[in-house]
Amino acid sequence: MLTLYVKTGCPFCARVLATGQELGIDFDQKNIADDAVAAELVARGGKRQVPYLVDSERGVEMYESADIDAYLRAQYPKR
Ligand SMILES: N[C@@H](CCC(=O)N[C@@H](CS)C(=O)NCC(=O)O)C(=O)O
């Protein structure tokens, strides 16, 4: 499963969501507007910054929209 921590209005998140749409990826989105979700993100990754990707099948987690974009294109190319 691919989980993406996001925040409403975040342009970096929008970029990753657009890439996901292009590649046909349906993220489980978690919005840090919810304080409990924000706390969960900090506990996982160490800082409050979105977007943050969790690829639970591959055991990969990362910040940075450009890195997430590159990772998705490499690992989940459009079929
Ligand atoms: N270089 C980062 C920038 C990410 C960034 O600045 N995210 C902002 C939202 S647009 C953020 O997480 N701010 C902390 C907050 O809103 O609590 C990326 O490209 O992913």
Structural description of this entry:
This protein is of the alpha+beta class and 79 residues long. Strands 2-1-3-4 form a 4-stranded mixed β-sheet, sandwiched between helices. It has one domain: Glutaredoxin. Helix 1 packs parallel to helix 3. The radius of gyration is 12 Å and the shape is globular. 24% of the residues are buried. The model has no long low-confidence stretch (mean pLDDT 97). Helix content is 44%, strand content 22%. Bound molecules: glutathione. The site of glutathione (GSH) has 10 residues, from helix 3.
Task: Please describe the topology of this protein.
Blueprint: E1 2-6, H1 11-23, E2 28-31, H2 35-45, E3 52-55, E4 60-63, H3 65-75
Parallel strand pairs: 1-2
Antiparallel strand pairs: 1-3, 3-4
Helix pairs in contact: 1-3
The structure holds glutathione.
Keywords:
single chain, 79 residues, alpha+beta, Glutaredoxin, 44% helix, globular, binds glutathione
The number of domains is 1
CATH class annotation:
Alpha Beta
SSE pattern: EHEHEEH
Helical/strand content category = alpha+beta
Distance between the termini: 17 Å
Helix content: 40-55%
Strands across the major sheet, in which order?
Answer: 2-1-3-4
Low-confidence stretches: none
Quote the beta fraction: 15-25%
Count of helical segments? 3
The major sheet is characterized as: 4 strands, mixed
Task: Provide mean pLDDT, rounded.
Answer: 97
CATH H level, superfamily name: Glutaredoxin
How many β-strands, per DSSP?
4
Give a short summary of the structure:
By secondary structure, the protein is α+β, with helices and mostly antiparallel strands. Helix content is 44%, strand content 22%.
